Structure formats: structure tokens, C-alpha cells
Amino acid sequence: MKLFKNTAGIYGILENNNSPLRGKEINEFKAIANGYVVTDQGKITEYGKLEELKRAESEFEEIIDCQGGLLLPAYCDSHTHLVFATSREEEFVDRINGLTYEEIALRGGGILNSAEKLANLSEDQLFEDAKQRLNKLIKLGTGAIEIKSGYGLSVEAEIKMLRVIKRLKESFNIPIKATFLGAHAFPKTYKTNKQAYIDLIINEMLPIIAQEGLADYIDAFCEENYFTVEQTLQIIEAGKKAGLKAKIHVNQFNALGGVSAFVKEGAVSLDHLEEMNTEDYDALEDSNTIATALPSCSFFLSIPYTPLKEMLSRNIAIALATDFNPGSTPSGNMNFVVSLACIKQKLTPAQAYNAATINGAYAMEVADQVGSITKGKRANFIVTNPVKGLNYLPYSFGENNIHAVYVNGEIVKTN
Ligand SMILES: N=CN[C@@H](CCC(=O)O)C(=O)O
Ligand SMILES: [Zn+2]
Predict the structure, then answer these.
(1) pLDDT digits (tens, 9 = 90+) for 57-91
(2) Pocket of ligand 1 (CB under 6 A)
(3) H/E element holding 157?
(4) Exposure b/e, 355-381, CB count within 10 A at least 16 = b
(5) Where in the cell is it found (predicted)?
(6) Considering Cα of 257, then 260, then 264, then 267, what sign does the dihedral take?
């Protein structure tokens, strides 16, 4: 048994919860001042006010002095493209010089650029690089993560990416979910016969994925010049038959009517949603589909931010994630995501932390294990440096306030 004591407060406490927080519920990131947490065999077993702790200190095999820091649930990053070949800073400079993300993609840059680079890398190399990235993210406070394929765009390379994610699942002791994103872009060779690529996804990729248990979810990039609503629906239906629920990229640049169609299909989450119309809000309102915002992507591409305030006022369940990828979001830092959600999307710190922890956990269907300080959940948490309170964390954007990260009760980092 371990005792975490001398916190200024423990945050994100939740009991008897079985659905994402929305409406008034998301306004409170429940805290206990001067709280303690007890962990046993990697799980949270008790918590409360330190002065009410019943046990003697001699009962604990280890006592962790949190030195006046805050103890928060680790982040649950429900949307990443962590496996990729290399960075794309040349496109970053092209954008500085005036090209848009879409223009770069139409010239063969963007996702196709990443796919070309990934084709030449071995599974082992991809795994080593992704492992390093994930280790860095855990040190930044991420305690559960979703990772997509989608830079393969051929049977061989998509399977290679998913096998890398499978190896990450085996090598890391945090919850990891794999999403098959074969429908990320049309490879050049299929430009004039797009249905043939969709058939390849459905008839060649999905059977291998189902047989080897390589994915938990299916995704598609529903956008102009990528996949239409109808094409995305074909992918979702095929995924369903293979036992994969949907998490879909939609409304990043254009609202094409996908939101209502995909909510009807029971998508676990719809992600991006920078462009929203009335029909889209109506479809998400009171639905079980989580709207996942990716504010670092908006920041990096200088595109609109997902209108989270409006979503909250309509009782839509929201989550925050990084979208870590080499093209539109070269950062997997959830601390920055929370800051942006407060600064640009006007969430309160409590709302932003709930969206980045428990609601992110729901967007990966791992809320029974992570996302809050709850008895029985994994002891995945962040201990901050001594700060004045929760509000200081998103306020001091860019500052690393993390003192230590714990995964299953074991320390990952101390500054
Ligand atoms: N929008 C589609 N996919 C990624 C970007 C991929 C890339 O540019 O490599 C995203 O979520 O932003
Ligand atoms: Zn994405």
C-alpha cells in the first residue's frame, strides 16, 4: 500500500459515474483540499482529507510526499496519430510563406507525403520511434491514449502501422486503443477510381485486421477532396461488420452533412468539428456521441476552434485531445490543449480538465479504468509543483508545472 500525502488538493474525484460529463455536471472538477490518496497494486483504494486518514503511517510500504502540489487524474488523449515516419516542417514553412493546408495536400504533400515516407520504414523502426514519442507524452501527463493508422494507405503499410500499435499496447502499461484509419486519404494511384480503394479497405485490409485483432475502432477523414459522407458510411458499415465502432474525422474544413449521418450510426466520437451548422448541433445534442475538439490543430493551422461553449449549452458531451501528427499538430502535449481550450474556447479550467480526463476516457471506452480519482481505477495521476490552485495550470500556458507522473502507482518522472 502507498500513501500520497501533503497535496494542496486532489482533483477530478468521481464516484457512481457511468457516462461522460455534460451539462452542469462538467462544471465541477471535484476536489478535496489537503487530500490524500491510497493506492494498492496499482489501483486507487482510498482517498479523503488527510486529517481524516484512519490508518497509521506504519501501515504503508511507501509514503509519497507531494510537497504541496496538486494531484490530478492523468490525461486521456483520445485522438492521436502517434505512429509516423518523420516530421513535416518543410510544409510548416510553406504555410508560413502563404500556402494553406489544403493547397499543400493538393500538391501531394500532407497525408500522402507521410504515407510515402512511412512505406520505406521497417516495423521495428516505426515502433522504436513511436515508443520514444509515447514515453515523452507520458512524462507530460498522458495516462491513456488512442492511436490511429492512416499513413499506410496500402494493405501492407496499414497492417504494419497497426502491428506497431499492437506492440505499443504490449510494451506500455497504460490503456492504448487502436483505430484503423485506412480511409485517411486516397492514394494517387486510385485518384480516378476511388471506389477501388474503398473496396481494398473493405475486402483486403479489414479481414486481416479483424482476424489479427489489430484495431478497436474504425475512422475515416470525411472532408472535401477526401472521403464523402456516402463513402464514409460504407467504411463505417464495413467496420461494424468487423466488430469496430466508429470514431470519425469530420467537419474540419467543411460541414458536409456527415455529423447527423454518423451520429445515427452510433459513432463513439466525432472529432474536429471546427465547422458546425444547426443540423450538426441538433444531431449531437443529447446523443451518446462525444464531440472531440482538437484545439492544438486549430492553433497550428490557424483555422477556427471547435465551438465548445455552444456545444456545452446544448448538452453535448465534449472531450479534448491532441491530434498529435506530423502535419496539422506536431504536439502531443495535453497541458497545452487544456490551456488552449480555456484561452481560445472559453472553457473554465474545471470544464477543460473534465473534457481532457474523464470524457476523453469515455471517448476511448476506458472510463472504467482511468480518467478520474475513483476507487478501483488505475493510479494514473499527475502531481504538480506547488501552485496556487487549479486555475494556475492552464493560465501559465507553456510552463511545465508537472512535478511527477504516476502510472499504476509507479513514478514515471520527477523533475
Ligand atoms: N485531418 C486529418 N488528419 C490529421 C492530419 C493528418 C496530416 O496532415 O498528416 C488531422 O486530424 O488533423
Ligand atoms: Zn486526426
Answers:
(1) 999 999 999 999 999 999 999 999 999 999 999 99
(2) 110-111, 114, 221, 249, 252, 297, 323, 325-329
(3) helix 155-171
(4) bbbbbbbbbbbbbebbbbbbeebbbbb
(5) Cytoplasm
(6) positive
Give the global pTM.
0.98
The SS3 call for residue 53 is: coil
* Rounded distance between C-alpha atoms, residue 293 and residue 272, angstroms: 5
104 near 89, Cβ under 8 Å? Answer: no
What count of other Cβ atoms lies within 10 Å of the Cβ of residue 117? 16
Provide the greatest CA pair distance for the chain. 72
What ipTM was estimated for this complex? Answer: 0.96
Binding-site positions: 79, 81, 88, 151, 184, 249, 252, 323, 325, 327-328
Confidence of residue 108 (pLDDT cuts 50, 70, 90): confident
User: Which CATH architecture describes the domain 76-362?
Assistant: Alpha-Beta Barrel (3.20)
Distance CA 234, CA 215 (A): 18
User: How many A from CA of 249 to the centre of ligand 1?
Assistant: 9
Ranges for all domains in the chain classified under CATH 3.20.20.140 = 76-362
Q: Which CATH class for the 2-73+372-414 domain?
A: mainly beta
For 179-198, b/e burial (b = at least 16 CB within 10 A) is bbbbbbbbbeebeeeeeebb
